Amino acid sequence: xxxxxVTDTRKVTTRRLREMxxxxxxxxxxxxxxxxxxxxLDAAGVDCLLVGDSASNVMAxxxxxxxxxxxxMIYHAMCVSRGAKRAFVVCDMPFGSYQIDRTDxxxxxxxxxxxxxxxxxxxxxxxxxxxxxRSITQAGIPVVGHLGLxxxxxxxxxxxxxxxxxEAEAQTLLNDVETLYQAGCCAIVLEKIPAALTAKAVKAVPxxxxxxxxxxxxxxxxxxxxxxxxxxxxxxxxxxxxxxxxEIMTDAVGRYxxxxxxxxxxxxxxxx
Length: 272
Description:
Helix 2 packs across helix 4. Strands 1-2-3-4-5-6-7-8 form an 8-stranded parallel beta barrel, surrounded by 7 helices. It has helices spanning about 15-25, 35-45, 55-60, 70-85, 100-115, 130-140, 155, 165-180, 195-205, 225, 245-260; strands at about 25-30, 50, 90, 120, 145-150, 185-190, 210, 220. Strand 4 (about 120), helix 6 and strand 5 (about 145-150) form a beta-alpha-beta unit. About 40% of the residues lie in helices and about 15% in strands. By secondary structure, the protein is α/β, with parallel strands linked by helices.
């Protein structure tokens, strides 16, 4: 059923994302790390593809997002951009590629845009990186912010628990939403914060808020391998599985192995 949700095949842009928020049209975002998956998700009608530094976990098996390199993110983003025709492709700037100084960050941002063909970059953090975001957006590069639980700061947080439950941190987050908007962000991802706080953030600025474990927002994002059920080891409260590919793939591989072992594959009609 390729394209079964696509009624408007125009390319999704920063302007269209804001128009979707204004019209009350929810934004559907999923992660993607390769050409084939991106092509399938794009044809199905997903609005945004996030080339997340979660590739560090999903693709490379690391415990955190910290080890993935700039070169590796560029490779994944190139693959995804080739597979996407309609979706807005966002690439995470990995840890260490924008925290050192603004000049270094801008240089890396320009490199990602030039080499990958993606549509925007995503940076984690609030007021502390606002000047960096401003320098990137002033160079003509769209930026998506990321607040709440920011995985690149996991060692500072000490856990993956919900953020901004206390009033002081909640107010800081709302201040950061305004700061990132003023710095030029075209959207903001809100991760693992109370739903009531997300509702305030949605109303605070005209750019879309994309939630993950944050209740109702202008849109939602999930890691594609999680929502397709390829990973059985990760079951947070916010995750809804739409398939069980772990079981489907295991069964298919098992049948293939059996056919090879018993000599029924390849059959005569599968041979030259």
